[in-house]
Request: fold
Amino acid sequence: MISAAIMAHRKRTAMANRLARRMDIPIIWDQKNDVWETGRRALLAHDPEASHHLVLQDDAVAARGLLAECKALLAHVPDDAPVSLYMGRYRHRPRQFAMKPVADAARATGASFAVFGGPWWGVGVIVPTAHIIELVEFGDANPKREANYDLRIAQFYASRDTDCWYTLPSIVEHRAGPSLIGRRGSKRHAQWSNSGKPLGLDWSGGVITPADLRLKQRVPARSVNLYGWLHPRNSLCFTTADTGRRSARLTTSV
Reply:
């Protein structure tokens, strides 16, 4: 069973209400103009009977049937892993890099997920409900002094040496409009999106990792090394889809 909630700011009331009607899930409204405070309450709004909990942000574009799709894809993900339903085109911190090589490799190989650190985008994130209390406590302590909700979640999973599974394609999308937390640009879109297409995807295609790009795709080394910051201790460590064992580690300098 999966539960869900929307974290929303009053500046996006119309967007949030539209999404809530479509998904038939509750809205957790910002009360202090504080993205973490809103996000933590959205996490704590999980159903205690659920195994996983999805938090959507107010500017997410989601299809009807998303919760059923999430239940289907979770059958292919380790029980203790977070899932991001969105993978953007670029990441700007601590340096800019592109996600296109990952998406291109997934298309070429039929992979259903990219596996690396995170979640690094908060549009639609699933976490195991068993982690939520500890996750919220970690986020409240905020050892890295990080303002953003998604990065606090990412740092929690980094502290557990646990990677995030990103759906390929992304099954939620950003609605057009500027970021409310100062992120660059108003045209924020997934690198590879299923937006506008039916759900009911096959999630049995396995995984692709930045290490796979380096080992199999002949991507210039610079393109891969930019991913080195995505995992604790400046290294990449990934999980195989079939055994759950750590399969590749690439130490990089960032």
The first helix runs from residue 13 to 23. Residues 48 and 161 are 25 Å apart (CA to CA).
